[in-house]
């Protein structure tokens, strides 16, 4: 089985004291977080920062001591693949998210409850819940 590794970030900002999350919508209509494949000689954090900048046009600061992993299988061209994704938590301010039109159908700012109801996959819900709980303890 082919294995792929990607890195990304659960990105947030604070508006009037409320946390808003950057949620992407893929070309297939799936809601999730910005992420992408590691390029040659990149670290996990370098990949996450680059992918966030490319996919949603934001420069973020990664929050230390937060790192989550997700693994799932998917099919591409009739072949089952294993995808391993590392997520960090990234904060931004005074910027406007902009979707990378070649890869995404959109990008939204959502509160926790709205994001949770938009996700199609339990993994996304688990990741956001872990990130949200972490932020509530800061």
Describe this structure in words.
By secondary structure, the protein is of the alpha+beta class. It has one domain (2-136): Nucleoside Triphosphate Pyrophosphohydrolase (Alpha-Beta Complex). The chain has helices spanning 44-56, 112-118, 122-136; strands spanning 2-15, 18-26, 31-32, 35-37, 61-62, 68-76, 79-91, 104-110. Strands 1, 2, 3, 4, 5, 6, 7 and 8 form an eight-stranded mixed beta sheet that branches.
- The total count of helices amounts to 3
- Gross morphology is globular
At CATH's second level, what is the architecture? Alpha-Beta Complex
State the secondary-structure class: alpha+beta
Give a count of the beta strands, DSSP E runs of length 2 or more: 8
Estimated helix fraction: 25-40%
Rounded to the nearest angstrom, the radius of gyration is 14 Å
What is the CA-CA span between the terminal residues? 40 Å
Major sheet summary line: 8 strands, mixed
Proportion in β-strands? 35-45%
Mean pLDDT across residues: 96
Count structural domains.
Answer: 1
CATH class reads Alpha Beta
The SSE order reads EEEEHEEEEHH
Low-pLDDT runs of 5+ residues are: none
Tell me the CATH topology: Nucleoside Triphosphate Pyrophosphohydrolase
CATH H-level homologous superfamily name: Nucleoside Triphosphate Pyrophosphohydrolase
